[in-house]
Specification:
The protein has 10 helices and 17 strands. With 504 residues, the protein is of the alpha+beta class. It is globular, with a radius of gyration of 26 Å. 34% of the residues are buried.
Length: 504
């Protein structure tokens, strides 16, 4: 990868010291612009037109125009990007160009010094600089080593090799069921991709698999009421210290089996298969380099395949309200049984339609959940726009505030209000979305298809606001939070709930 120099500053040759970073924390930037989106036509990558990052936009010349200073103002100098920040953006592009890229190696040249960078989903590692003029032999050894690096050492997974087409079959060996065939649909408009450097880097793609399609009906937690045979694959990098999502879901299924009221069973995702890529731990290179705290915050690649669900945002009016309430009942029942979700957001509230036309709400995405006595890892849990206000304060961000059930209740209400303002008849409004300018205006008007739901959301939020106004540090028992903030203002507004599903 070539590094484009964007500075006119000159510096004296330096010794082997790290390149200073800007205050903005460039090594972990997740900024994306149209000019910095991942570009690749390899397999397992989005179908984007390739263009060198140093090329000018189409139709523009790189030549400077002559300016008459008496008549026109001189052109403004373009804003310079710090080399470390630009390097981070390039690394993010390379990650985005392959769905399971494990690591990226880049370099920055500053005068006669070259600095190697290693990025993975845990963090960035910068090597001391090499003066390729004064220390030419060492530089030549570096080039020789990189020339002979095999495919995997460039950060690619051995099982997900790029080929010339946009989708291809991947076979993952599994100790229990043998080889699992996976064919990803990377051009689907339902895919979810990620642009950034560190973190879980979750991507979701529709997938086909003969082995898993045959396995699905035999699962003990199989849901016969969801008629679809379509599958989706979730690839992500959770912290290894956390209890895995597959382990948490197994506890959820155990709770569902004992559920006689139908609040949990058939209201949780149907996991078909999961696999941990043991050799992808980000601790491996840090241990080899002898870095301090090499095991702290380590991440590993997982893949989980689920039966396909639909987003709750596709519903309106009573259908939306009914599905939302079903998910609240499921969430509360699980919380009381020791499974704490802790990441309520629109993308985690899903639905499916039964053969007789009923919409069933599903509480999805348990990878940030916790169970009794499970390690919590180093991540702050939650999706920021929908987190309880108490969890956004400094002491909470530092991990000094316990995540309570009432915090998830508040998140449900923020999601409710969000959907009412941004969706009309199940479609995202193309313009006039009030929350796009929520810092500038206060006249929030819901969409026509969510007017009644908006009134319910405002009633609930007023109750929450008054509770905090009386006591900012208010802590409620789970039952009190459910009854006062949800059940009392909502239950009388609910449509008839004919959603109890019998076991088959």
């Amino acid at each position: 990868m070539k590094y484009r120099r964007d500075t006119n500053d000159t510096a004296e040759p330096t010794d082997s010291t790290p390149l200073p970073l800007p205050d903005s924390g460039a090594g972990t930037s997740s900024l994306q612009t149209p000019e910095t989106q991942g570009r690749s036509n390899q397999s397992l990558a989005p179908n984007n037109k390739k263009r060198g990052s140093s090329q000018p936009p189409e139709g523009r010349s790189t030549k400077k125009l002559k300016v008459d200073n008496d008549e026109k103002e001189p052109p403004k100098e373009s804003q310079k990007i710090h080399p470390a920040l630009q390097n981070g953006l390039y690394a993010a592009e390379l990650f985005a160009a392959h769905i399971v890229r494990q690591s990226v190696i880049t370099y920055i040249v500053e005068d006669d010094m070259i600095y190697l960078w290693y990025f993975d989903r845990q963090d960035a590692i910068q090597c001391s600089g090499i003066n390729f003029v004064q220390d030419l032999p060492r530089f030549m050894v570096l080039l020789l080593a990189m020339q002979r690096m095999p495919y995997a050492e460039w950060g690619y997974n051995r099982l997900f090799k790029p080929v010339d087409r946009l989708s291809g079959e991947v076979r993952v060996p599994d100790e229990d069921i043998g080889d699992v065939d996976l064919t990803f649909d990377l051009k689907s408009d339902k895919r979810i991709t990620h642009f950034g450097l560190r973190g879980r880097a979750t991507t979701v793609f529709p997938v086909k698999s003969k082995a898993l399609s045959a396995l699905m009906p035999t699962l003990p937690h199989h849901n016969p009421h969801n008629p679809t045979s379509e599958l989706v694959a979730k690839l992500y990098w959770p912290e290894e210290e956390r209890e895995s999502e597959a382990e948490i879901l197994q506890k959820v299924y155990d709770i569902a089996e004992k559920d006689t009221e139908g609040k949990v069973k058939y209201h949780v995702p149907e996991m078909v298969w999961s696999h941990k890529f043991e050799d992808t731990s980000t601790a491996n290179i840090r241990t080899a380099l002898g870095l301090k705290d090499a095991e702290r915050g380590k991440r590993v690649l997982y893949i989980i395949v689920f039966k396909k669900l639909d987003p709750i945002t596709g519903l309106s009016e009573d259908e939306f309200l009914s599905a939302w309430w079903q998910i609240i009942l499921c969430h509360y029942a699980l919380w009381e049984c020791g499974v704490h979700h802790r990441d309520v957001s629109p993308s985690n509230l899903m639905v499916y339609k039964t053969s007789d036309g009923r919409w069933i709400g599903v509480l999805n995405d348990f990878d940030l959940s916790s169970t009794r006595d499970s390690p919590s890892g180093q991540e702050r849990t939650g999706t920021v726009p929908f987190m309880a206000l108490r969890l956004l304060k400094e002491d909470a961000i530092e991990g000094k505030v316990k995540h309570l059930y009432q915090h998830d209740v508040e998140s449900f209400l923020w999601v409710f209000a969000w959907v009412c303002l941004r969706y009309e008849e199940g479609r995202l409004l193309r313009k006039g979305r009030p929350l796009d300018e929520w810092l500038k205006r206060h006249d929030m008007i819901p969409s026509q298809s969510h007017k009644k739901n908006w009134d319910i959301a405002m009633t609930c939020l007023r109750i929450v606001n008054m509770s905090h106004a009386d006591d900012p540090s208010l802590t409620l028992e789970n039952k009190d939070a459910f009854e006062k903030w949800l059940q009392t203002p909502v239950q009388s507004k609910l449509p008839p709930l004919n959603v109890h599903l019998e076991s088959k």
